[in-house]
Amino acid sequence: MKHDATDTHTLAAPYTLDALEPGERGAFEDHLRTCAACRQEVAEFDATAARLAAAVALAPPATAKARTMAAIEGVRQLPPRVPTQASAPAFGSALRRKAPALALAAAVAAALVGGATVWQVRHTQDLERQARQAQQRLDAVSAVLAAPDARTTHARAANGALATVVTSDRQNKAVFTAVNLPAPGTGRTYQLWLDHDGTMLPAGLIDHDGTVILAGDSADASAVGLTLEPAGGSPQPTTTPLLLMTLPT
């Protein structure tokens, strides 16, 4: 990532994301020794990046353990015993008598293994899709954090949640991160808003700690709001804002 010498103060985000070339990184670290403002910016971006890592983590499905334990029942753990030569005739006679039952058992086992295989394939595909979606979200968020004009704003909501907003006018995007956000309650959700000349426009939903990219044109917005709304969101705020963060101009 190349930057002009005059852009040194804008390198806090790419430095935190390890997006600088070796020469730029060394020069910026020299700059950090004498610039308290940039040290503060780096500390803030470090905290935001840590929250992002938690936000994109994928938890296994709640049913994964039960399905795995059930599938184990159909997996043979030990190889069959091989009879000695002396007992071969008796074994052959017993095998003929038990052939129908063994055939039925084999059919049942095949069905179980087939079902487990189908489930495993679908489960793997679901995980891969979730991983791709998570990576896409992380890439989009990282692009905002690494923007040369990225700016950070912090605030505490009325319900005690800590909020961070990172904006980039060049990309016309903003990233919202919430920590210690209380559960919204049954049938409720938190909704984000962008203030455009006094008009609050919907900017997305968030119902737990994490990070989201705000929908809408953040470059023209003057503030970010957070309200508690009915599940699914509202076209306009229906409750007093829990948070109204003024964005830097």
Characterization of the model:
The structure is a single chain. By secondary structure, the protein is an alpha+beta fold. It folds into 3 domains: 7-55, no CATH class; 64-74 and 86-142; 149-249, Immunoglobulin-like, CATH 2.60.40. Helices cover 41% and strands 21% of the residues. It has helices spanning 12-16, 22-32, 36-55, 64-72, 88-145; strands spanning 151-156, 162-168, 173-179, 188-196, 199-206, 210-213, 223-230, 243-246. Strands 1-2-3-6 form a 4-stranded antiparallel β-sheet, with helices on one face.
In short:
This protein has 249 residues and is an alpha+beta fold. The chain is built from five helices and eight strands.
User: In the CATH scheme, what's the topology name of the largest domain?
Assistant: Immunoglobulin-like
Query: What is the CATH class of the largest domain?
Result: Mainly Beta
Radius of gyration: 29 Å
Shape: flat
| Count of individual helical segments | 5
User: What structural category do the secondary elements indicate?
Assistant: alpha+beta
How is the biggest beta sheet arranged? Answer: 4 strands, antiparallel
* Overall average pLDDT: 76
Number of strands: 8
Give the helix level as a range of percent. Answer: 40-55%
Return the CATH architecture of the largest domain: Sandwich
* Element-level helix/strand string: HHHHHEEEEEEEE
Strand arrangement across the biggest beta sheet = 1-2-3-6
Beta-strand portion reads 15-25%
Query: Low-confidence parts, pLDDT < 50 over ≥5 residues?
Result: 1-6
| Oligomerization status of the protein chains | single chain
Number of separate domains: 3
In whole angstroms, the N-to-C terminal distance is: 25 Å
